[in-house]
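Example 3.2
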Amino acid sequence: MTTVGCICSSGNQTLCDELGVCVEKLSVQYKEALEECVREYSKHGVGRCSEHEQCYESDETRWKIRDCIKGKVNQEKLNDKERTEMDNHLNCVRDLDKYCPTEN
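Structure, written as tokens:
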């Protein structure tokens, strides 16, 4: 399970809010693609993290959104500022990994 999947299915809204902080670090290009893809694949938008809900609905929906974003953004055309923003986003998500159990 990915860090994002772990957090989204955690039932912990505070942790999901922290993931939202990481999303805000995305480059504009990625944020726009994320918004478009969420509208396309997640009928309830980002959603909430609770005992009965996951952000971005389900693992299947999250993978569809991820693939959609990959189809919309050409990473090789990111400028230096956008690359730095993406590095900041990825570091933020990696920092949240400590809240996800590791599989042995």
